[in-house]
Amino acid sequence: MTSPADRRKALEILDAAMAAGARARALAALLGVGLTTLQRWRQQFAGVGDGLDRRKGSPSLVSHRLSDDERQRILLTCNQPEFAALPPGQIVPVLADRVLYIGSERSFYRVLHARGVRRQLVGGRLRS
């Protein structure tokens, strides 16, 4: 997270460069932030603003989040000999044919990614 002092300095640099004819989008890219981020920073300092980021963020409690047991079941399923060489895009349809739903394909990828496992079918071959 960028401190308010650093944000103020970035805005000063932005204002000086724009006064000299530079474009805001190019300056944002040079600073390594998005244009909307710079606009939000400017709003935070508007009037008597102190530059603090007061966004609430996303709620941490999500009702449909996978439980630890569900994540474990996905990992156990992916590590079964039958599925060990398949990516989630092939595992989930096989399970669906068996009328067994453990999670979506995206959930499988998310759980595997969290464990540092990459499975992707590239050119007909599995890349781990």
Give a brief description.
This protein has about 130 residues and is mostly helical. Helices cover about 50% and strands about 5% of the residues. It is elongated, with a radius of gyration of 23 Å.
Describe it.
With 128 residues, this protein is mainly α. The protein contains six helices and two strands, in the order H-H-H-H-H-H-E-E. A two-stranded antiparallel ribbon has the order 1-2. Strand 1 (120-122) and strand 2 form a beta hairpin. Helix 1 packs antiparallel against helix 2 (24-31).
Q: Could you give the count of β-strands?
A: 2
The residue-averaged pLDDT reads: 83
Give me the strand/helix succession.
HHHHHHEE
Tell me what portion of residues adopts beta-strand conformation.
under 5%
Number of helices: 6
The radius of gyration computed from the alpha-carbon positions, rounded to a whole number of angstroms, is: 23 Å
Poorly predicted runs of 5 or more residues: 121-125
Largest sheet, described in full?
2 strands, antiparallel
Shape: elongated
Question: How helical, in percent, are the residues?
Answer: 40-55%
Distance between the termini: 33 Å
Q: How do the strands line up in the largest sheet?
A: 1-2
Alpha-beta classification: mainly alpha
Question: From the structure provided, what is the oligomeric state, counting identical versus distinct chains?
Answer: single chain
